[in-house]
Specification:
The chain has one domain: Cytochrome Bc1 Complex, Chain C (Up-down Bundle), CATH 1.20.810.10. The protein is 67% helix and 2% strand. A two-stranded antiparallel sheet has the order 1-2. Helix 4 crosses helix 5 and helix 5 crosses helix 13. The termini are far apart. Bound molecules: protoporphyrin IX containing FE. Protoporphyrin IX containing FE (HEM) binds next to helix 3, helix 5, helix 6 and helix 9.
Length: 369
């Protein structure tokens, strides 16, 4: 292939993914239509994830006014927010509940986008930026968990960071050192301590938000440029206007989401579902609490990690990540029906591990509760 034809192919590829002729209000808003079919509810999930993200930004900024990122004061500052700041407990609860809801929406959004073949050409960039957003969302959960500097979180973070280092034993040659270097870079010092808290804090409030803003911008821009995907039928039998009908419905979903979130944050402290005292301050001389677990959205990898050899999980998750990244090419010719079945299997696995992971663990380990 000559250089000229390679450049032309690259130009055509980019022009198809980013059709700049559609860069106007008429194409991106007035002309946009949303297919109506039995999976249409899936089109509201990205918007719902966006809504919870906005709640995270607003409540997170409010928490920043009082939170102290030091090992001596972090826990006390969080307690102060809950006990003495007017509306502080509500804001903290909203931040925690909304983080869980955002993750639930992002996972459901991924599964419905997959089931509807929304990754199909020319939406590869939308899918890839979506995968990036998924990892960033998990990154927010992982780093935010440590910030209150409580007994459970510090110990769970130690275990999480150790798992990164364990990867090294399965890598060849010099690469075997990389996971330790990654762990040390994130951890910042020999043991989880002030340097770790400072780094998690910087990642949580600066690095991840900036990375997310960039990826989300590209994600939403390509969604608007290409319009909605076909859904379950190609071509769709019925469509509705994006503006104003779908937008009004989207905003109604935001209204209901806000009402539910507010009610939950008001009535149910986030830690009320935790089997142990979640907010005991970290005691460096204390023992690691029994039955320590990460947040619910990590159960799908945590329980298999407890049951199966680390190497199996490593290969399994490596393949799953690769599959996620290559989805637009791997499933290019797969029928929508097969994709719906695969999405159902994925959803059943995630729900099964989240709801019954502990029971499954006890069945296979043969121990009591
Ligand atoms: C912070 C996380 C995310 C936010 C805020 C977000 C937001 C959105 C929004 C508002 C839409 C348009 C409405 C809709 O189809 O629901 C959308 C579409 C889309 N998203 Fe996401 N998204 C996120 C993560 C993801 C993930 C994890 C994936 C998959 C890996 C993904 C893949 C897609 C695709 C393929 C579309 C196009 C849907 C279509 O054309 O029918 N997104 N996203």
């Amino acid at each position: 292939m000559s250089l000229y034809s390679a450049i032309k192919r690259a130009k055509d590829y980019a022009a198809e993914r980013f059709p700049i002729e559609k860069l106007n209000f008429h194409s991106m808003v007035e002309k946009k239509e949303v297919p109506v079919h039995r999976l249409s509810w899936g089109y509201y999930l990205g918007g719902a994830a966006l809504f919870f993200l906005l709640v995270q930004i607003v409540t997170g900024l409010m928490l920043l006014f009082y939170y102290q990122p030091t090992v001596s004061d972090a826990h006390a500052s969080v307690e102060y927010i809950s006990d003495y700041v007017v509306g502080g407990a509500l804001v903290r609860n909203m931040h925690s509940w909304s983080s869980s809801m955002m993750i639930a929406c992002v996972i459901a959004h991924l599964l419905t986008a997959f089931a509807m073949k929304a990754f199909e050409k020319p939406r590869e960039i939308t899918w890839l930026t979506g995968v990036g957003l998924l990892f960033l969302t998990f990154g927010f959960g992982f780093t935010g968990y440590l910030l209150p500097w409580n007994q459970i979180a510090v110990n769970a973070t130690k275990i999480g960071l150790q798992s990164i280092e364990q990867v090294g034993q399965y890598l060849p040659g010099q690469m075997a050192q990389w996971p330790r270097a990654i762990r040390e870079t994130i951890q910042g010092e020999a043991a989880v301590g002030q340097a770790t808290l400072s780094r998690f804090y910087a990642i949580h409030v600066i690095v991840l938000p900036f990375a997310l803003a960039a990826l989300l911008g590209l994600h939403l821009f390509s969604v608007q440029l290409h319009g909605m995907s076909r859904g379950v039928e190609d071509p769709p039998r019925r469509q509705e206007k994006f503006f104003p009908m779908f937008l009004i419905k989207d905003l109604s979903v935001w209204g209901v989401a806000f009402f539910l979130l507010f009610l939950m944050a008001l009535c149910l402290p986030f830690e009320s579902f935790s089997p142990y005292p979640l907010f005991e301050a970290f005691d460096p001389n204390g023992s690691t609490p029994d039955g320590i677990k990460p947040e619910w959205y990590f159960y799908f990898v945590y329980y298999p990690l407890e049951l199966l050899p680390f190497g199996v999980i490593l290969v399994g998750s490596g393949l799953a990540m690769l599959m996620l990244l290559l989805t637009p090419w791997l499933f290019r010719s797969t029928s929508r029906k097969t994709l719906r079945i695969l999405a159902l299997v994925g959803a059943a696995y995630f729900l099964g591990m989240t709801l019954f992971g502990e029971d499954i663990y006890h069945i296979f380990k043969g121990g009591g509760q």
